[in-house]
Amino acid sequence: MNCENFSISEKIVSSSYIRQGAQARRTHEQLIRLLLEKGKCPEDGWDESTIELFLNELAVMDSNNFLGNCGVGEREGRVASSLVARRHYRLIHGIGRSGDIAAVQPKAAGSSLLNKLTNAVVLDILKAAGVRTVSSCFVVPMATGMSLTLCFLTLRHRRPKAKYILWPRIDQKSCFKSMITAGFEPVIVESLLEGDELRTDLQTVESKIKELGPENIVCVHSTTSCFAPRVPDRLEELAQMCAKYEIPHIVNNAYGVQSSKCMHLIQQGARVGRIDAFVQSLDKNFMVPVGGAIIAGFNESFIQEISRMYPGRASASPSLDVLITLLSLGTNGYKQLLKERKEMYTYLAEELKKLAEAHGERLLETSHNPISLAMSLGNFEKHTKAVTQLGSMLFTRQVSGARVVPLGTEQTVSGYTFQGFMSHTNEYPCPYLNAASAIGITRQDVDLCIKRLDKCLKTFKREKGDQSDKLESESGNPATASEEDVSELAERFQEEACLGLRKL
Amino acid sequence: MNCENFSISEKIVSSSYIRQGAQARRTHEQLIRLLLEKGKCPEDGWDESTIELFLNELAVMDSNNFLGNCGVGEREGRVASSLVARRHYRLIHGIGRSGDIAAVQPKAAGSSLLNKLTNAVVLDILKAAGVRTVSSCFVVPMATGMSLTLCFLTLRHRRPKAKYILWPRIDQKSCFKSMITAGFEPVIVESLLEGDELRTDLQTVESKIKELGPENIVCVHSTTSCFAPRVPDRLEELAQMCAKYEIPHIVNNAYGVQSSKCMHLIQQGARVGRIDAFVQSLDKNFMVPVGGAIIAGFNESFIQEISRMYPGRASASPSLDVLITLLSLGTNGYKQLLKERKEMYTYLAEELKKLAEAHGERLLETSHNPISLAMSLGNFEKHTKAVTQLGSMLFTRQVSGARVVPLGTEQTVSGYTFQGFMSHTNEYPCPYLNAASAIGITRQDVDLCIKRLDKCLKTFKREKGDQSDKLESESGNPATASEEDVSELAERFQEEACLGLRKL
Amino acid sequence: MNCENFSISEKIVSSSYIRQGAQARRTHEQLIRLLLEKGKCPEDGWDESTIELFLNELAVMDSNNFLGNCGVGEREGRVASSLVARRHYRLIHGIGRSGDIAAVQPKAAGSSLLNKLTNAVVLDILKAAGVRTVSSCFVVPMATGMSLTLCFLTLRHRRPKAKYILWPRIDQKSCFKSMITAGFEPVIVESLLEGDELRTDLQTVESKIKELGPENIVCVHSTTSCFAPRVPDRLEELAQMCAKYEIPHIVNNAYGVQSSKCMHLIQQGARVGRIDAFVQSLDKNFMVPVGGAIIAGFNESFIQEISRMYPGRASASPSLDVLITLLSLGTNGYKQLLKERKEMYTYLAEELKKLAEAHGERLLETSHNPISLAMSLGNFEKHTKAVTQLGSMLFTRQVSGARVVPLGTEQTVSGYTFQGFMSHTNEYPCPYLNAASAIGITRQDVDLCIKRLDKCLKTFKREKGDQSDKLESESGNPATASEEDVSELAERFQEEACLGLRKL
Amino acid sequence: MNCENFSISEKIVSSSYIRQGAQARRTHEQLIRLLLEKGKCPEDGWDESTIELFLNELAVMDSNNFLGNCGVGEREGRVASSLVARRHYRLIHGIGRSGDIAAVQPKAAGSSLLNKLTNAVVLDILKAAGVRTVSSCFVVPMATGMSLTLCFLTLRHRRPKAKYILWPRIDQKSCFKSMITAGFEPVIVESLLEGDELRTDLQTVESKIKELGPENIVCVHSTTSCFAPRVPDRLEELAQMCAKYEIPHIVNNAYGVQSSKCMHLIQQGARVGRIDAFVQSLDKNFMVPVGGAIIAGFNESFIQEISRMYPGRASASPSLDVLITLLSLGTNGYKQLLKERKEMYTYLAEELKKLAEAHGERLLETSHNPISLAMSLGNFEKHTKAVTQLGSMLFTRQVSGARVVPLGTEQTVSGYTFQGFMSHTNEYPCPYLNAASAIGITRQDVDLCIKRLDKCLKTFKREKGDQSDKLESESGNPATASEEDVSELAERFQEEACLGLRKL
User: Fold this and answer.
1) What is the pLDDT of residue A504?
2) Which of A17, A61, A500 is opposite residue C112, by nearest beta carbon?
3) Contact assignment for A19 to D501 by CB distance below 8 Å
4) Which range (A220-229, A447-456, C405-414, D31-40) has the least confidence?
5) What is the largest CA-CA distance in chain C?
6) Chain C contacts of D475, Cβ < 8 Å?
7) Are the Cβ atoms of C9 and A47 closer than 8 angstroms?
8) Do the chains contact at A498 and D19, CB–CB below 8 Å?
């Protein structure tokens, strides 16, 4: 309420109480003021009531919520369903304009503020997470892969003749496809096996640059966060190489914001060499729903060029989610989450090590990977089906995210054939199982995972030999339920009334 | 509740009441069953209670909501803020997989169902809206422009050597930029002036094809919905030409679903010639927040090729919005909205005509444009500022979407310079004002708009001559407030307490 | 946002857009201002966005939402569940203080405002609905019966020696029990049969007054809204009698606000005689959840005396519901609902009449009852079970609220035995069925009811004779499912998977 | 979804994923099943998703949510505002029937289940909190005072001639008024000063019984939770006396559920003597909004008699709140809250003791009071205004619940004059300040309170002498802001834009 309405209220309820109420309101306004003035994530998180007050205020500023508005355009922010209006806090106009996803909309002052503030708060958090010299960023309502594509498309205009992207191999489809979709030709650089780790082969990168000619290379496309035993690329050296040969450098930092190591690599790369943009997922780093990414960089004009490359308006939903989340956590809350993640990484590593040893396996030594761990599955017959079956067993026991990697899987993606797909290399010495300590993980997650994994490994040991003939699995998808699961599920369903109806 | 729980409840509350409750539950289940079985939009809209029940059921099927789940992956659908979880009905995993935006996710059976059903329901509605033979479509969480880009990028792989896109001019930045972003060279075909209308110059299109060579042309990129006096492209003839020369044909049907004429053009084009894909906005056609589009076509494998081109997962938010909306409207509700829109178009045309005549202007004759209308501003001096000022006046009077188009505006977009920008042609005979009857428009919108426009025109007439020297406006943006507005706003703010603080 | 924050926002987003946003906010504030100043229901309903903005503003003024509050009392408005906090808009402190349910709470300026405004708005609506001279009222979070009890308890202190309450019979348990609970002795005055109608026997009332002595009578307890064929009491004459003998007069106006006739009776009674308080249900008159009532009267100090009689704080939930509802409807919306109800009353009467005649029955002539109608069930055997069975059939066919009244039912309530219970008289000439046109009823309700009733009557006619021996019903409860229903329900459940599990 | 719909879904999304989804749903159902079967609070709290799923299921069973329902009654559970419907989870019919607030409603199987389950869960928690032999209870949507009134009104029917209620004095208006409202004459028994504590004067109670005659006494009305230096009544001895003289015994256990001591007293009283009912607040014990109470006892038929005394239906809102809260906490969560409260009590006592000593005051020794503490204000001049001013200062500094008690306050409540009101005795030796450790209190509450209190005491010391002449306060209300506050508030408001407008 404004001052006038507080004044009138004093005639209804005692002045002193109303004034205290007005004063209380002011404390919420002060928080909002700080946010607007500084454009930084608040240190301590906001109450839900302040967040909702703020979002309501923003909504009121958008023309679709003007009480006296009349609309005769083709896009007026009308909403047919009140469920939909409500879940978006009545912020309907999205973000950006046809010219620029970061631009301000005349019809939607509130949504425009939301967009600007979100980008500012996210920039602040990227700094706090370790990339202190990042100068510009924006949230884009596309996941990491498509955001990388947008970066590559932007580079096409800068380097019209270039057609190759140098890419140290990482077996994840989205980032590979991001290059294909942009219309470029990936040049795959295999990793070197150093101990258990798979690391960037710098020599081959440089020889490829020379072989193809720097002017024909769109960019180097490197990766930080990845599944062990691959480890983050040697960013410093790559960045120096890019600087030397004047080749742009785009870093896929998918879930690296949560790791100080990944962020440090980017900071160092930018300090000693060249990094044009680094891209990270919103959901993987900030515990929001899938669908947004942050494109960030050290040169404001290049980042702006990318934001201007996005044709048209875009969904405000990912921006809204990350803003709500960061306001409710505050910098301190986010840092606390990072700290807990790190602790859980250590705990997971210890527990996995114990478990591995108990089963005659070992935890691979991949100390350069700060998030993902791998445990060998050497005792398993070197038989894809057996390993895959373990994956299925874990899936049906509600262990999600534990990835088994058999040997010898071959897969073709967009016309390119990968040997040993999923293992980042043509032939890794042993099959293995991945587990990661990602932001938000709890001690209970680790304990349950270890317990169930232990049980599965025991079951497997007991049964192996007998069962191998009746195994079946969908190719390369460890998370897919096999027949075994179906029978197990059926068992669990036994007491259910449903059973009668099912044609199993 | 399942049967067992209903049974137990009978011991607490009389059997007959519980059974009636169970029976009532079953009627909700029947609606859900029909949706699952038929994959069609229900004829009559669902109650909010059925919709929320259904969404809750879907959420329960996603692994992030499993009560016994433990997660050791890098993406586990954890949510930090309960405000965020709630607004997404706890559906966190988004849609698609790295391989395909339409693919099913093992971790998220509920979100996967949501995705499949949304695409099915939307396909059903496209048919009901007039494109009866459309065979496949999918919702993508990007606005129209970026969706067009995705189509063009897909074509690159089919036609690696082609680099031109033939594009009958329409002055809207997103669709122009969609071609630039994809890395192609737009070949702009100016429209022909026929009466007041700007129509497709078929002859020039064909001569361009011959000139450039069909094999060098990525596609023809035509448009249905647009601002008058431009009218929808001659789709039938273009489609025939594309068939003849074996050139792909992508239609920008941005807000055309709401118009039976636009939909009919597409249906006809596909019948007699070639249309590979048509793209439409979710927000402009279905009254949901900005940020989603539908990519549809007549050849399932090509549409699937596009969906596979999207690298990685994507936000489920636009799918969720459109599904909620269509379930709550039902086919009948949506058709009713289309009917009302058509009626309001007629009403707006009549009222605008009367107003135009009263002010010595005329309603341009653009009967081929089923949505947008244009009223001449000939009596206005042919002075950009004057026209722009009218736009500002309307903006500050909360008439949104009324677009004024001065003559002689030159604008450069992505390196291409357009004469007469906004008017779709180098030199239209007169400045004019646009108003549209878009889905959701009410009689009150029309009445208020006419009333305020009338007042502005009168004010303007009174003042003109005196003021022209002090006018100022941001280039080409009629919706931008000028100084005039600021002083007017200040006036309105006069009684406000705030005033003291403002440094106006 | 306050002015300061708007100012800062202008540095982030263009001034003119922000100012328009600030202006838009002001229109919401103006609505709130009008409400605060006038204390009246707005003529036109508010948008949901204004309502929620207002409720958020109120919540912010309560101490449990102060950001810097520390609480060391025994009641601090803490909430354990965020679901609970949210559903109450964080207004936790309830209404009233230990001294007075209408009093202001120091800890809760917002809740106090809510309470005061609700009472003011409700008073305004009572006036608009016909009792123009009502001077005071308050919402109490108890249903009608308990609210009547509170009125009687208040009178005890004014008339310590009195112990009788004169009560023209109406067969509804709550209002009868309200006297018993208050510790008084009801003196039941039977109605007179005039035509089909049951009307107040004024002569007996007066003779009872004389017989018992006015000073021994706590009050006359009369009724407006009731089931036909009883009609509203002769309030004018009763009020005159009360004035003459100086006896308080409490009117049970349970669902009478929705009927201009009932409201007129009260207005007239107060004009020509004495009415001390009239009590009405919130849920039955304002389409809110069960649990609140309005106690209103013409003498402010007596109404205040009642409000002071309530010991302690009370739930704000019913006040919140009715305030939200009236703000969203506005006076015009509420009047429109009343108008539609009246029209549906006429329609229901016509349709019921036709149906009655088709089945050899008749619509009872009860024109003094403006809400409830009765159709004879004379052709039915005069057998309670048969009539009751009809009730059950309607219940299982989801016709709710259609009440069948057999003859000869005897029931004992709190030690008093009523002959012909439910029919308001010892022996009504025929069994009958009630249907009412209450606020919110739709044409579809009427049509479906008539259709299903027709079907039931036909079925019944066909089956009667055969089935009468196996009928069973819970005493006097027509809405209770009988065995017949169970078998019918079972039939409907046949296709259900559930069936296997049920022990029918 | 039922089994059928899961089956159909398998055709849309892979069987194994759907089955895992169905299995996940079953785990929610299992929780619900346990609740229905055992009628106990779950040990571990439920997720919000399970709670909402359950509430949605209940709502679907109520006739107002039947998709095919037609209503022709006077109360059909229609809701005008979707905001209102939503906040009640569409449970509109309230609880109870005209005959009994605990009865089942034919129209509302879901609400009826809610009511029954809430009472069962609450009973379970009362047992867990220490009254192991409690046999029956129900939630009533009235605060403690009105609930006590209902108990007394019920006793009237058992003891029609009795008119006195024996009441060991406690200075809280609601519980005193609860007797007045019920129409009885309180017989006030002053407490004895033992050390610093005020304790039950058993001898006087017994002599009053003899003096008035047991048959003339409605009941003894004792109290557990209260402000120090009063301590809980000697329940054991009172209960024995009640047994001996055959007098009912009603215990006001307002906020005693949170204290094992209070609960133990009740358990012991019932074991060795007579307790007919004990009444406790929902908000004060379970952190829900104000407005509900639990009436509990050891004799099921007496508790049922009370529930039948409530005339008519009632709001389900308090039941819904407490059910949601207990399901989300679980028994373990609730016990954890009790444990933390106890720890904070000790901490608060220590801190207050230190502070008192630093200011030349002392913490009163009131070890029998497990919740409330008192610190002497002896150094203060024995001047009501000075003490009251301290209260105001704390109020404006957002210390809520810290109650200052001056000497010599006289207050008349419902015609009875109390000397030394607020101090539970005619003349307590010194003025004092209360602070309590109530459920939900945090260490931060204590720290802030101590800090601000310290500051106030210092300020006061500095200023005393100068200011005493300009003090003013509303009689007896320490929480009321005085002029001093107003000027202080004005100071704080200084920077505010608002200031200009205010007429201070």
Assistant:
1) 29
2) A17
3) no
4) C405-414
5) 85
6) none
7) no
8) no
| pLDDT of residue C384 exceeding 80 | no
* Residue B408 CB-half CA count within 13 A: 7
The tokens 């978006």 sit on which residue? A88
CA distance B466 to B460: 10
Tell me: the pLDDT tens digits for D404-451? Answer: 999 889 999 999 999 999 999 999 999 999 999 999 999 999 999 999
Instruction: Identify the three-state secondary structure at position D303.
Output: helix
C109 with A21: Cβ contact below 8 A: yes
Residue A493 neighbours by CB distance under 10 Å: 18
ipTM over 0.85: yes
The answer to whether the Cβ–Cβ distance between A20 and D492 falls below 8 Å is no
pTM of the model: 0.93
**In which element (H, E) is residue C127 found?**
helix C109-128
Q: How far is CA D287 from CA C82, C296, D291, in A?
A: 11, 32, 11
Question: From the list B180, B325, B402, which residue is nearest A81 (CB)?
Answer: B325
C281: closest chain D residue by CA: D75
- d(Cα C98, Cα C105) in Å, to the nearest integer? 10
Contact A24 C117 (CB under 8 A): no
Is A98 within 8 Å of B477 when comparing Cβ atoms?
A: no
Cβ–Cβ gap C61/A18 under 8 Å: yes
Q: Which helix (H) or strand (E) holds C291?
A: none
Cis peptide bond prior to B431, omega within 30° of 0 = no
CB contact under 8 A, B59 and D37: no
pLDDT in the model for residue D463: 67
Per residue in D13-69, pLDDT (tens digit) is 999 999 999 999 999 999 999 999 999 999 999 999 999 999 999 999 999 999 999
The neighbours of chain D, by the rule of 3 or more Cβ pairs under 8 Å, are A, B, C
The SS3 of residue C9 is helix
- Give the chain D residue nearest A496 (alpha carbons): D26
Q: Which tens digits make up the pLDDT trace of B445-469?
A: 999 999 999 999 998 777 654 444 4
Instruction: Tell me, letter by letter, the H, E, C secondary structure of B205-223.
Output: HHHHHHHHCHHHEEEEEEE
Q: Which of B80, B225, B314 sits opposite A325 (nearest CB)?
A: B80
Tell me the shortest Cα–Cα distance from A488 to chain B, in angstroms: 17
Write b or e for each residue in D299-330: b if 16 or more Cβ atoms lie within 10 A of its Cβ, otherwise e: eeebbebbbbbbbbbbbbbbbbbbbbbbbbbb
For C305-459, strand residue ranges (E) read 372-376, 399-400, 403-405, 411-413, 416-418, 432-436
Instruction: Indicate the residue of B16, B492, B496 with minimum beta-carbon distance to C481.
Output: B16
Burial class (CB in 10 A: 0-12, 13-18, 19+), A373: buried
Measured between CA atoms, the residue of chain D closest to residue B18 is D109
| Cα A148 versus chain centre, distance | 12
Residues D89, D93, D96, CA angle at the centre, nearest 5°?
A: 125
The shortest CB-CB distance from D480 to any of C74, C106, C143 is to C106
Is residue D100 within 8 A of residue D308, CB to CB? The reply is yes
CA distance D318 to D84: 15
Q: Which of C348, C335, C341, C329 is nearest to C440 (CA)?
A: C341
Nearest chain A residue to D481 by CA: give it: A16
Token look-up 């329902």 returns: D69
Sorting pLDDT into bands at 50, 70 and 90, what band is D454? very high
Radius of gyration over alpha carbons of chain A, in Å? 26
Of D39, D82, D500, the CB nearest to B497: D500
**D489:A20 CB<8 A:** yes
Max CA-CA distance within chain D?
A: 85
Return the ∠ at Cα B373 (arms to B371 and B379), rounded to 5°. 170
Residue B99 pLDDT > 80? no
